């Protein structure tokens, strides 16, 4: 069975961006209950993006420099999602 790594990574990126959009939507409505429900999905998607970017950065499954173009930004995006979800869980003032 063939699994395209780039497609899986872009799906993870889209899920992370959708969670970010939900965050801003619920923040504008000042709905703390819904904001707290986004913590676990944001952590899981961030962890998935971090691992996918890490694997892409070290295994180089794509031709040429496309591994750096897609892998490293996804790794950083996943790391940012993990850090912000943990900070929001601990009620840190961002």
From TrEMBL:
Keywords: Membrane, Transmembrane, Transmembrane helix. The chain crosses the membrane at residues 6-26, 38-60, 66-89. The lineage of its organism: unclassified sequences, metagenomes, ecological metagenomes. This is Membrane protein containing DUF981. Signal peptide: none annotated. Coiled coil: none annotated. It comes from mine drainage metagenome.
């Amino acid at each position: 069975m063939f699994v395209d790594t780039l497609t899986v990574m872009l799906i993870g990126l889209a899920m992370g961006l959708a969670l970010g959009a939900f965050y801003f939507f619920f923040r504008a409505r000042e709905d703390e209950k819904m904001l707290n429900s986004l913590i676990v999905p944001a952590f899981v998607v961030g962890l998935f993006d971090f691992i996918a970017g890490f694997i892409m950065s070290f295994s180089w499954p794509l031709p040429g420099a496309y591994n750096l173009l897609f892998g490293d930004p996804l790794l950083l995006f996943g790391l940012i999602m993990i850090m912000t979800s943990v900070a929001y869980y601990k009620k840190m003032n961002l």
